[in-house]
Design brief:
Number of helices of chain A: 2
Mean pLDDT of chain A: 95
Strand content of chain B: 25-35%
Order of helices and strands of chain B: EEHHEEE
CATH superfamily of chain A: YVTN repeat-like/Quinoprotein amine dehydrogenase
Number of strands of chain A: 28
Low-confidence stretches of chain B: none
Low-confidence stretches of chain A: none
Number of helices of chain B: 2
CATH architecture of chain B: Roll
Largest interface: A-B, 22 and 19 residues
Strand order of the largest sheet of chain A: 3-2-1-28
Structural class of chain B: alpha+beta
Distance between the termini of chain B: 41 Å
CATH class of chain A: Mainly Beta
Structural class of chain A: mainly beta
Order of helices and strands of chain A: EEEEEEEEEEEHEEEEHEEEEEEEEEEEEE
Oligomer: heterodimer
CATH class of chain B: Alpha Beta
Number of domains of chain A: 1
Helix content of chain A: under 10%
Largest sheet of chain A: 4 strands, antiparallel
CATH topology of chain B: Ubiquitin-like (UB roll)
CATH architecture of chain A: 7 Propeller
Chain lengths: ~350, ~90
Protein backbone atom coordinates (compact mmCIF):
# COMPACT_ATOMS: atom_id res chain seq x y z
CA UNK A 1 0.00 0.00 0.00
CA UNK A 2 1.12 3.56 -0.56
CA UNK A 3 0.86 6.46 1.85
CA UNK A 4 -0.37 9.98 1.37
CA UNK A 5 1.17 12.39 3.85
CA UNK A 6 -0.83 15.59 4.22
CA UNK A 7 1.38 18.53 5.20
CA UNK A 8 -0.47 21.38 6.88
CA UNK A 9 1.49 24.62 6.78
CA UNK A 10 1.26 28.28 7.56
CA UNK A 11 0.22 28.96 3.96
CA UNK A 12 -1.83 26.01 2.81
CA UNK A 13 -2.15 22.23 2.71
CA UNK A 14 0.29 20.18 0.68
CA UNK A 15 0.52 16.46 0.03
CA UNK A 16 3.32 13.98 -0.45
CA UNK A 17 2.42 10.72 -2.20
CA UNK A 18 4.57 7.61 -1.82
CA UNK A 19 5.05 4.59 -4.02
CA UNK A 20 4.15 1.16 -2.62
CA UNK A 21 7.49 0.85 -0.81
CA UNK A 22 7.58 4.44 0.49
CA UNK A 23 10.96 4.80 -1.22
CA UNK A 24 9.87 7.57 -3.61
CA UNK A 25 7.64 10.51 -2.78
CA UNK A 26 6.06 13.19 -4.95
CA UNK A 27 4.91 16.63 -3.88
CA UNK A 28 1.36 17.57 -4.87
CA UNK A 29 -0.03 21.04 -5.46
CA UNK A 30 -1.37 22.84 -2.42
CA UNK A 31 -4.98 23.06 -1.40
CA UNK A 32 -6.42 25.96 0.61
CA UNK A 33 -3.68 28.46 -0.37
CA UNK A 34 -3.25 31.21 2.17
CA UNK A 35 -4.90 29.30 5.03
CA UNK A 36 -3.07 28.03 8.07
CA UNK A 37 -3.64 24.33 8.78
CA UNK A 38 -3.12 23.70 12.48
CA UNK A 39 -5.31 20.60 12.73
CA UNK A 40 -5.45 17.50 10.55
CA UNK A 41 -7.26 14.30 11.43
CA UNK A 42 -7.69 11.24 9.23
CA UNK A 43 -10.66 9.30 10.58
CA UNK A 44 -9.96 5.75 9.44
CA UNK A 45 -12.43 4.03 11.74
CA UNK A 46 -14.79 3.12 8.93
CA UNK A 47 -12.06 1.74 6.70
CA UNK A 48 -12.41 4.48 4.12
CA UNK A 49 -10.65 7.56 5.50
CA UNK A 50 -12.40 10.85 6.05
CA UNK A 51 -9.99 13.72 6.55
CA UNK A 52 -10.78 16.80 8.61
CA UNK A 53 -8.71 19.97 8.32
CA UNK A 54 -8.90 22.88 10.72
CA UNK A 55 -8.13 25.97 8.64
CA UNK A 56 -7.59 29.40 10.06
CA UNK A 57 -6.45 32.87 9.11
CA UNK A 58 -5.19 35.63 11.35
CA UNK A 59 -7.51 37.94 9.40
CA UNK A 60 -10.58 35.83 8.77
CA UNK A 61 -10.69 33.30 11.61
CA UNK A 62 -11.22 29.54 11.40
CA UNK A 63 -13.44 26.86 9.90
CA UNK A 64 -13.39 23.13 9.26
CA UNK A 65 -13.31 21.27 5.98
CA UNK A 66 -13.64 17.56 5.26
CA UNK A 67 -12.47 15.33 2.45
CA UNK A 68 -13.71 11.86 1.53
CA UNK A 69 -11.04 11.27 -1.13
CA UNK A 70 -7.83 11.66 0.89
CA UNK A 71 -7.56 15.39 0.28
CA UNK A 72 -8.10 15.58 -3.47
CA UNK A 73 -11.36 17.51 -3.04
CA UNK A 74 -12.73 19.29 0.02
CA UNK A 75 -16.14 20.13 1.38
CA UNK A 76 -16.79 23.18 3.55
CA UNK A 77 -18.43 22.48 6.90
CA UNK A 78 -20.82 25.40 7.14
CA UNK A 79 -21.77 24.64 10.75
CA UNK A 80 -18.13 24.59 11.92
CA UNK A 81 -17.40 25.13 15.63
CA UNK A 82 -18.28 28.69 16.61
CA UNK A 83 -18.92 30.54 19.84
CA UNK A 84 -22.50 31.72 20.40
CA UNK A 85 -23.51 35.04 18.87
CA UNK A 86 -22.67 37.86 21.23
CA UNK A 87 -19.83 35.98 22.89
CA UNK A 88 -17.00 38.13 24.18
CA UNK A 89 -14.56 35.40 23.10
CA UNK A 90 -13.44 34.97 19.51
CA UNK A 91 -12.74 31.52 18.16
CA UNK A 92 -9.20 31.87 16.84
CA UNK A 93 -8.11 28.45 15.64
CA UNK A 94 -9.12 24.81 15.51
CA UNK A 95 -6.24 22.96 17.16
CA UNK A 96 -7.49 19.38 17.28
CA UNK A 97 -10.05 17.05 15.75
CA UNK A 98 -10.31 13.57 17.21
CA UNK A 99 -12.54 10.51 17.14
CA UNK A 100 -15.05 10.03 19.92
CA UNK A 101 -16.36 6.81 21.39
CA UNK A 102 -19.04 6.25 18.77
CA UNK A 103 -18.48 5.95 15.01
CA UNK A 104 -20.25 9.21 14.20
CA UNK A 105 -18.85 11.15 17.18
CA UNK A 106 -15.98 13.60 16.83
CA UNK A 107 -14.42 16.14 19.17
CA UNK A 108 -12.75 19.42 18.26
CA UNK A 109 -10.51 21.56 20.43
CA UNK A 110 -10.15 25.28 19.76
CA UNK A 111 -8.70 28.47 21.07
CA UNK A 112 -9.74 30.29 23.13
CA UNK A 113 -10.10 27.11 25.08
CA UNK A 114 -13.29 25.26 24.26
CA UNK A 115 -14.31 21.74 23.34
CA UNK A 116 -16.91 20.97 20.67
CA UNK A 117 -18.69 17.69 19.96
CA UNK A 118 -20.25 16.42 16.78
CA UNK A 119 -22.63 13.46 16.70
CA UNK A 120 -23.18 13.56 12.95
CA UNK A 121 -19.67 12.90 11.61
CA UNK A 122 -18.66 16.54 11.71
CA UNK A 123 -21.64 18.22 10.04
CA UNK A 124 -22.71 20.17 13.15
CA UNK A 125 -20.96 20.95 16.45
CA UNK A 126 -22.06 21.71 20.00
CA UNK A 127 -19.91 23.36 22.67
CA UNK A 128 -19.16 21.33 25.80
CA UNK A 129 -20.95 23.12 28.63
CA UNK A 130 -19.11 21.41 31.49
CA UNK A 131 -15.75 22.76 30.35
CA UNK A 132 -17.25 26.21 29.78
CA UNK A 133 -18.51 26.25 33.36
CA UNK A 134 -15.39 24.75 34.92
CA UNK A 135 -14.85 26.38 38.32
CA UNK A 136 -11.18 27.14 37.60
CA UNK A 137 -11.80 28.85 34.25
CA UNK A 138 -11.16 32.35 35.57
CA UNK A 139 -7.62 31.27 36.48
CA UNK A 140 -6.77 29.97 32.99
CA UNK A 141 -3.97 31.82 31.24
CA UNK A 142 -2.78 31.42 27.63
CA UNK A 143 0.58 30.14 26.44
CA UNK A 144 2.47 31.70 23.54
CA UNK A 145 0.09 29.97 21.11
CA UNK A 146 -2.98 31.31 22.87
CA UNK A 147 -5.35 29.58 25.25
CA UNK A 148 -5.57 26.51 23.06
CA UNK A 149 -7.22 23.15 23.62
CA UNK A 150 -4.79 21.23 21.47
CA UNK A 151 -4.94 17.56 22.48
CA UNK A 152 -7.90 15.21 22.83
CA UNK A 153 -7.57 11.53 23.76
CA UNK A 154 -10.54 9.18 23.82
CA UNK A 155 -9.77 6.17 26.00
CA UNK A 156 -10.16 3.07 23.79
CA UNK A 157 -10.94 0.81 26.75
CA UNK A 158 -13.51 3.02 28.47
CA UNK A 159 -15.93 4.95 26.28
CA UNK A 160 -16.85 7.29 29.14
CA UNK A 161 -13.24 8.31 29.78
CA UNK A 162 -11.40 10.97 27.84
CA UNK A 163 -8.60 13.45 28.35
CA UNK A 164 -7.96 16.94 27.02
CA UNK A 165 -4.94 19.24 27.21
CA UNK A 166 -5.06 23.04 27.34
CA UNK A 167 -2.08 25.41 27.24
CA UNK A 168 -1.15 26.84 29.66
CA UNK A 169 -3.67 25.19 31.99
CA UNK A 170 -3.02 21.44 32.06
CA UNK A 171 -4.65 18.08 31.52
CA UNK A 172 -8.29 17.37 32.31
CA UNK A 173 -9.98 13.97 32.58
CA UNK A 174 -13.62 13.11 32.20
CA UNK A 175 -15.04 9.79 33.40
CA UNK A 176 -18.57 10.51 32.25
CA UNK A 177 -18.25 11.21 28.55
CA UNK A 178 -17.50 14.91 28.97
CA UNK A 179 -20.27 15.82 31.42
CA UNK A 180 -17.68 16.79 34.04
CA UNK A 181 -13.94 17.45 34.06
CA UNK A 182 -11.27 16.94 36.72
CA UNK A 183 -7.85 18.58 36.55
CA UNK A 184 -4.99 16.07 36.46
CA UNK A 185 -1.82 18.07 37.11
CA UNK A 186 -0.44 16.57 40.33
CA UNK A 187 3.34 16.33 40.14
CA UNK A 188 3.67 18.61 37.12
CA UNK A 189 5.76 21.79 37.45
CA UNK A 190 4.12 25.21 37.31
CA UNK A 191 4.92 27.68 34.54
CA UNK A 192 4.47 30.87 36.53
CA UNK A 193 6.23 30.67 39.83
CA UNK A 194 4.74 33.52 41.80
CA UNK A 195 3.30 32.44 45.12
CA UNK A 196 -0.30 32.73 44.04
CA UNK A 197 -0.01 30.62 40.90
CA UNK A 198 2.68 28.15 41.92
CA UNK A 199 0.29 26.30 44.17
CA UNK A 200 -2.83 26.57 42.04
CA UNK A 201 -4.34 23.51 40.36
CA UNK A 202 -3.87 25.01 36.92
CA UNK A 203 -0.99 26.98 35.35
CA UNK A 204 0.55 23.76 34.00
CA UNK A 205 1.53 24.17 30.37
CA UNK A 206 1.00 20.83 28.67
CA UNK A 207 2.33 20.92 25.10
CA UNK A 208 1.26 17.44 24.02
CA UNK A 209 0.29 14.16 25.62
CA UNK A 210 -0.28 10.60 24.46
CA UNK A 211 -1.79 7.40 25.82
CA UNK A 212 -0.11 4.01 25.68
CA UNK A 213 -2.13 1.90 23.21
CA UNK A 214 -2.15 -1.31 25.26
CA UNK A 215 -1.97 0.12 28.78
CA UNK A 216 -4.48 2.97 28.79
CA UNK A 217 -3.69 4.07 32.35
CA UNK A 218 -0.22 5.02 31.11
CA UNK A 219 -0.03 8.56 29.85
CA UNK A 220 2.99 10.56 28.79
CA UNK A 221 3.23 14.32 28.39
CA UNK A 222 5.61 16.81 26.89
CA UNK A 223 5.16 19.86 29.04
CA UNK A 224 6.70 23.31 28.99
CA UNK A 225 8.47 22.38 32.22
CA UNK A 226 9.63 18.88 31.27
CA UNK A 227 8.66 15.37 30.19
CA UNK A 228 6.39 13.33 32.48
CA UNK A 229 4.52 10.06 32.73
CA UNK A 230 1.52 8.89 34.66
CA UNK A 231 0.79 5.29 35.56
CA UNK A 232 -2.64 6.02 37.01
CA UNK A 233 -4.59 7.71 34.21
CA UNK A 234 -3.29 11.15 35.09
CA UNK A 235 -3.89 11.07 38.86
CA UNK A 236 -0.17 11.67 39.43
CA UNK A 237 2.85 12.44 37.28
CA UNK A 238 6.59 11.87 37.53
CA UNK A 239 9.48 13.23 35.49
CA UNK A 240 11.10 11.01 32.83
CA UNK A 241 14.04 12.96 31.42
CA UNK A 242 17.08 10.67 31.80
CA UNK A 243 19.13 11.08 28.63
CA UNK A 244 17.35 14.13 27.25
CA UNK A 245 19.36 17.29 26.52
CA UNK A 246 16.39 19.46 27.49
CA UNK A 247 12.97 18.93 28.98
CA UNK A 248 11.49 21.55 26.68
CA UNK A 249 9.78 20.65 23.42
CA UNK A 250 6.42 20.37 21.75
CA UNK A 251 5.62 17.09 19.99
CA UNK A 252 5.39 13.61 21.48
CA UNK A 253 4.78 10.52 19.38
CA UNK A 254 3.48 7.24 20.77
CA UNK A 255 4.49 4.21 18.75
CA UNK A 256 1.19 2.73 17.53
CA UNK A 257 2.37 -0.88 17.76
CA UNK A 258 5.01 -0.98 20.47
CA UNK A 259 3.88 -0.32 24.05
CA UNK A 260 6.12 1.94 26.11
CA UNK A 261 7.94 3.16 22.99
CA UNK A 262 7.68 6.85 22.24
CA UNK A 263 9.56 9.77 20.75
CA UNK A 264 10.20 13.38 21.71
CA UNK A 265 12.03 16.15 19.83
CA UNK A 266 13.55 18.51 22.41
CA UNK A 267 14.38 22.16 21.91
CA UNK A 268 17.19 24.12 23.50
CA UNK A 269 14.94 26.06 25.88
CA UNK A 270 11.71 27.98 25.98
CA UNK A 271 13.65 31.12 25.13
CA UNK A 272 15.68 29.83 22.15
CA UNK A 273 13.23 27.22 20.80
CA UNK A 274 15.82 25.65 18.49
CA UNK A 275 17.20 22.15 18.10
CA UNK A 276 20.02 21.65 20.63
CA UNK A 277 23.38 21.77 18.88
CA UNK A 278 21.86 22.93 15.61
CA UNK A 279 20.63 19.49 14.51
CA UNK A 280 17.22 17.85 14.85
CA UNK A 281 17.43 15.33 17.65
CA UNK A 282 14.68 12.74 17.90
CA UNK A 283 14.88 10.84 21.17
CA UNK A 284 13.34 7.41 21.61
CA UNK A 285 12.52 5.45 24.70
CA UNK A 286 11.68 1.75 24.69
CA UNK A 287 11.00 1.56 28.41
CA UNK A 288 8.27 4.13 29.02
CA UNK A 289 10.72 6.93 29.62
CA UNK A 290 13.11 5.29 32.10
CA UNK A 291 15.82 6.24 29.61
CA UNK A 292 16.03 8.04 26.28
CA UNK A 293 18.39 7.46 23.36
CA UNK A 294 19.09 9.91 20.57
CA UNK A 295 18.49 8.80 16.98
CA UNK A 296 21.01 10.40 14.63
CA UNK A 297 21.25 8.78 11.24
CA UNK A 298 19.76 10.95 8.53
CA UNK A 299 19.49 14.00 10.76
CA UNK A 300 23.04 15.29 10.31
CA UNK A 301 22.29 18.47 8.33
CA UNK A 302 22.53 21.66 10.38
CA UNK A 303 19.09 22.92 11.28
CA UNK A 304 18.01 25.59 13.71
CA UNK A 305 14.28 25.15 13.60
CA UNK A 306 11.89 23.21 15.73
CA UNK A 307 8.90 20.89 15.46
CA UNK A 308 5.43 22.09 16.44
CA UNK A 309 3.07 19.98 18.56
CA UNK A 310 0.82 18.79 15.71
CA UNK A 311 3.59 18.35 13.15
CA UNK A 312 4.04 14.60 13.57
CA UNK A 313 2.20 11.53 12.35
CA UNK A 314 2.41 7.75 12.11
CA UNK A 315 1.08 5.54 9.35
CA UNK A 316 -0.64 2.14 9.49
CA UNK A 317 1.83 0.12 7.45
CA UNK A 318 3.27 -3.17 8.78
CA UNK A 319 6.60 -1.44 9.36
CA UNK A 320 5.31 1.73 10.95
CA UNK A 321 6.26 4.99 9.27
CA UNK A 322 6.89 7.89 11.64
CA UNK A 323 6.97 11.43 10.26
CA UNK A 324 7.79 14.90 11.53
CA UNK A 325 7.82 18.32 9.87
CA UNK A 326 9.94 21.28 10.92
CA UNK A 327 9.28 24.97 11.26
CA UNK A 328 11.81 25.32 8.43
CA UNK A 329 9.51 23.37 6.14
CA UNK A 330 11.27 20.00 5.88
CA UNK A 331 9.63 16.61 6.36
CA UNK A 332 11.50 13.59 7.73
CA UNK A 333 10.40 9.94 7.81
CA UNK A 334 11.62 6.72 9.38
CA UNK A 335 10.45 3.17 8.73
CA UNK A 336 12.62 1.46 11.35
CA UNK A 337 11.67 3.39 14.48
CA UNK A 338 14.32 6.04 14.06
CA UNK A 339 17.42 3.99 13.21
CA UNK A 340 17.51 5.86 9.89
CA UNK A 341 15.67 9.06 8.99
CA UNK A 342 15.05 10.16 5.42
CA UNK A 343 14.24 13.69 4.34
CA UNK A 344 11.27 13.69 1.98
CA UNK A 345 11.22 16.00 -1.05
CA UNK A 346 10.05 19.59 -0.88
CA UNK A 347 10.62 22.67 1.24
CA UNK A 348 7.32 23.90 2.57
CA UNK A 349 6.19 26.90 4.58
CA UNK A 350 6.33 26.49 8.37
CA UNK A 351 4.80 23.07 9.03
CA UNK A 352 1.95 23.10 11.54
CA UNK A 353 0.39 19.64 11.16
CA UNK A 354 0.84 16.24 9.49
CA UNK A 355 -1.48 13.34 8.77
CA UNK A 356 -0.47 10.05 7.14
CA UNK A 357 -3.21 8.19 5.28
CA UNK A 358 -3.14 4.72 3.75
CA UNK A 359 -4.30 4.95 0.13
CA UNK B 1 -34.40 47.61 -3.09
CA UNK B 2 -31.00 48.84 -4.32
CA UNK B 3 -28.84 46.23 -6.00
CA UNK B 4 -25.07 46.46 -5.95
CA UNK B 5 -21.90 44.42 -6.35
CA UNK B 6 -20.03 42.98 -3.38
CA UNK B 7 -16.35 42.20 -4.03
CA UNK B 8 -14.49 39.89 -1.62
CA UNK B 9 -10.81 38.83 -1.43
CA UNK B 10 -9.80 35.66 -3.21
CA UNK B 11 -9.33 33.84 0.10
CA UNK B 12 -13.05 34.22 0.74
CA UNK B 13 -14.13 33.01 -2.70
CA UNK B 14 -14.47 29.35 -1.54
CA UNK B 15 -17.33 30.49 0.70
CA UNK B 16 -19.10 32.26 -2.21
CA UNK B 17 -19.32 29.39 -4.70
CA UNK B 18 -15.85 30.30 -5.95
CA UNK B 19 -16.82 33.87 -6.90
CA UNK B 20 -15.16 37.10 -5.80
CA UNK B 21 -17.95 39.34 -7.12
CA UNK B 22 -21.51 38.85 -5.93
CA UNK B 23 -24.73 40.63 -6.72
CA UNK B 24 -26.43 41.71 -3.49
CA UNK B 25 -29.43 43.78 -2.43
CA UNK B 26 -29.98 45.99 0.59
CA UNK B 27 -30.98 49.43 1.70
CA UNK B 28 -27.86 49.80 3.81
CA UNK B 29 -24.48 48.11 4.19
CA UNK B 30 -25.63 45.70 6.89
CA UNK B 31 -28.65 44.47 4.96
CA UNK B 32 -26.56 44.10 1.81
CA UNK B 33 -24.05 42.01 3.76
CA UNK B 34 -26.88 40.03 5.34
CA UNK B 35 -28.19 39.26 1.87
CA UNK B 36 -24.83 37.75 0.86
CA UNK B 37 -24.27 36.01 4.20
CA UNK B 38 -27.70 34.38 4.20
CA UNK B 39 -26.69 32.60 1.01
CA UNK B 40 -23.09 32.01 2.13
CA UNK B 41 -22.98 31.39 5.91
CA UNK B 42 -19.21 30.98 6.12
CA UNK B 43 -18.81 34.46 4.64
CA UNK B 44 -20.40 35.76 7.85
CA UNK B 45 -18.04 33.66 9.97
CA UNK B 46 -14.97 35.07 8.26
CA UNK B 47 -15.98 38.73 7.90
CA UNK B 48 -17.76 39.29 11.22
CA UNK B 49 -16.79 38.23 14.71
CA UNK B 50 -19.05 36.61 17.32
CA UNK B 51 -20.52 40.01 18.21
CA UNK B 52 -21.46 40.87 14.63
CA UNK B 53 -18.62 43.37 14.30
CA UNK B 54 -16.31 43.51 11.31
CA UNK B 55 -13.20 41.50 12.20
CA UNK B 56 -10.23 43.47 13.42
CA UNK B 57 -8.11 43.13 10.27
CA UNK B 58 -10.94 43.38 7.73
CA UNK B 59 -11.86 46.62 5.98
CA UNK B 60 -15.21 47.46 4.44
CA UNK B 61 -15.65 50.15 1.81
CA UNK B 62 -18.82 51.45 0.12
CA UNK B 63 -17.50 52.89 -3.12
CA UNK B 64 -14.62 54.97 -1.73
CA UNK B 65 -15.96 55.47 1.77
CA UNK B 66 -14.72 53.46 4.77
CA UNK B 67 -17.89 52.03 6.34
CA UNK B 68 -16.24 49.59 8.71
CA UNK B 69 -17.74 51.42 11.68
CA UNK B 70 -20.92 52.48 9.89
CA UNK B 71 -22.87 49.46 8.74
CA UNK B 72 -26.03 51.57 8.66
CA UNK B 73 -24.67 53.66 5.75
CA UNK B 74 -27.35 53.97 3.07
CA UNK B 75 -26.76 52.16 -0.22
CA UNK B 76 -27.88 53.10 -3.71
CA UNK B 77 -28.50 51.18 -6.91
CA UNK B 78 -25.22 50.32 -8.61
CA UNK B 79 -22.99 50.89 -5.59
CA UNK B 80 -19.78 48.93 -5.14
CA UNK B 81 -19.22 47.30 -1.76
CA UNK B 82 -15.77 45.92 -0.97
CA UNK B 83 -14.49 43.54 1.69
CA UNK B 84 -10.73 44.07 1.89
CA UNK B 85 -7.94 42.56 3.92
CA UNK B 86 -6.36 45.33 5.98
CA UNK B 87 -2.79 46.11 5.05
CA UNK B 88 -0.74 45.68 8.16
CA UNK B 89 2.71 44.45 8.90
CA UNK B 90 5.76 44.65 6.65
Amino acid sequence: MSVRLLVGTEKGLFALDSDDRRSRWQVRQPAHPGWQVYALFADERGGHPTVFAGLSSRVYGPHLQRSDDCGHTWELIEASPRFPEGSLRELKQVWAVQAGSRPETLWAGVSHAALFRSDDSGATWTMNDALEAHPTREQWLPGAGGLCLHTIVQDPANRERMFIGISAVGIFRSDDGGRSWTIKNQGVGAVLLDEERKYSEVNRCVHKFVQDPTEPNRLYQQNHTGVYRSLDAGDSWERIEAGLPSGFGFPMVMHPRRPRTLFVIPQESDQLRMFPGGRPGVYRTDNAGDSWRRTYAGLEDPSYGGVLRNATSTDREDQTGIYFGTTGGHVYATYDDGELWTRLPGTFPRIESLAAIRV
Amino acid sequence: MPRMTLTVPRMLAPFCDGQTRLSVSGTDVRSALDDAMARHPLLRTHVLNERGEVREHVHLFLNETDVREDLSATTREGDELYVLQAMSGG
